[in-house]
Amino acid sequence: QIQLVESGGGLAEPGGSLRLSCVASGVTFSNYAITWARQVPGKGLEWVSGINSDGSEIYYRESVKGRFIMSRDNAKNTLFLQMNVLKPEDTALYYCTLGYNYWGQGTQVTVSS
Asked: Please, are residues 95 and 103 in contact by the beta-carbon 8 Å criterion?
């Protein structure tokens, strides 16, 4: 079955960086676009960024443009989210999702001094 496993979250200070990873199994990873989304405390689910199957097209929500970098390594079935210049409002549970049908368990990112 399809599994997505996120890692790399943690506590960071404002202005700091974290790198999230998402490893996929049970799927031909290179065939699919994939998305990062986040659950912000007290708010709904937010789309963060998306990447097409070969990594040639990447999209970001406005609030993370210039700070987050999404990439993928299809040879390793892995998705990345490099998060730089973190802000307290980036605090959330971050998920990778395949077509919004398959979700990982999430990895918590907390940005606080």
From this structure: yes
d(CA 92, CA 74): 26
Tens-place pLDDT, residues 45-99: 999 999 999 999 999 999 999 999 999 999 999 999 999 999 999 999 999 999 8
Q: Which residues contact 67 (CB under 8 A, 6 or more apart)?
A: 83, 84, 85, 86
Q: What type of residue is 58?
A: I
d(CA 21, CA 85): 18
pLDDT of residue 16: 98
3-state helix, strand, coil in the chain (%, to 5): 10, 50, 40
Amino acid at residue number 113:
S
Tell me how far apart the alpha carbons of residues 69 and 59 are, in angstroms, rounded to a whole number: 10
